[in-house]
Design goal:
Strand content: 15-25%
CATH topology: Rossmann fold
Helix content: 25-40%
Distance between the termini: 36 Å
Mean pLDDT: 97
Radius of gyration: 18 Å
Number of strands: 12
CATH superfamily: NAD(P)-binding Rossmann-like Domain
Bound molecules: NADP nicotinamide-adenine-dinucleotide phosphate
Length: about 250
């Protein structure tokens, strides 16, 4: 099957390409560094020739809410319109568990706009809500790290291995559209501060962590807000198993 992965050079996108290629699919890689830009539409029509399914694993990291909504909105509209022209039969979107419960965060606002356009769009779809990835804690400390000090909120999460997310996306992309899929999560509850400390230790990266609710991720993410719902699909790889591979 010919399947395109948007965000093919990213964390999850690259692993999804690898999972699809292991299963002998013909994979088209989409990213700006590879000459295809969802924001302008450049290269999209040529990239989607003969493609049956598209996985959207692109991302945007800006902290301004309007810019995030505009980015995800424009990119998603361009991608869906090109898919329609190319006769793509299945659009698979990687989203986030609890995206409707976190109203103030810019990235989540952008993801809600992306979900809205996909659900109202012209291409049959599956939206896959995933919990935070095992590398999320180190990503978060990376946002603020300066002179060996970084802030981190004490979030309760049930993180999932990036490889497991990619395997789920690859499996879903090769099947029929399913609408909103079950939440997808890892097997164990974790505290984000502890995850950050252990990840940076395993990588030999010395960072002093300052727990706070006053940085990028605020108190509206506290409690059970980020945890998967009833009937979630639980992926196999524990945080400890993933951590052992970071050393
Ligand atoms: N981090 C988490 O814990 C978590 C949890 C659940 C869901 N998610 C979701 O997972 C998704 C993927 O995250 P990630 O961490 O794998 O992302 P990432 O590593 O930042 O990769 C983003 C990818 O998107 C491409 N891209 C960005 N803008 C593009 C554009 N205009 N046109 C074409 N390609 C573009 C990038 O390549 P170029 O720069 O070359 O364009 C890159 O390949 C995100 O949407 C996020 O919301 C994340």
């Amino acid at each position: 099957m010919r399947i395109a992965v948007a965000g093919a050079t990213g964390n999850i996108g690259a692993l999804t390409v690898a999972a699809l290629e292991r299963a002998a699919h013909d994979v088209v890689r989409i990213s700006r560094s590879l000459g295809v830009d969802l924001t302008t539409g450049d290269g999209l029509d040529a990239a989607l020739t003969g493609v049956e399914a598209v996985v959207d694993a692109t991302s945007y990291t800006g902290a301004d809410r309007d810019a995030a909504v505009a980015y995800f909105g424009t990119a998603t509209q361009n991608l869906l319109a090109a898919e329609k022209r190319a006769g793509v039969r299945h659009h698979v979107l990687l989203s986030i568990v609890g995206v409707d419960r976190v109203v103030g965060n810019a990235h989540y606002a952008g993801k809600r706009e992306q979900e809205r356009l996909v659900t109202e769009g012209p291409v049959p779809w599956t939206i896959v809500p995933a919990t935070q990835f095992h590398d999320f804690a180190a990503t978060v400390t990376g946002w603020t790290e300066q002179d060996g000090v970084a802030t981190i909120p004490p979030l309760l999460v049930q993180p999932i291995a990036p490889e497991d997310v990619a395997d789920v996306l690859a499996e879903i992309a090769t099947g029929a559209p399913q609408g909103r899929y079950r939440d997808v999560a890892g097997p164990d509850l974790q505290d984000l501060v502890d995850m950050a400390r252990r990840t940076n230790d395993a990588r030999g990266h010395a960072v002093k962590l300052v727990p706070t609710w006053s940085s990028v991720l605020g108190p509206e993410m506290a409690g059970d807000v980020l945890l998967p719902g009833e009937g979630a699909r639980i992926a196999p790889t524990t945080f400890d198993e993933w951590l052992a591979r970071q050393r």
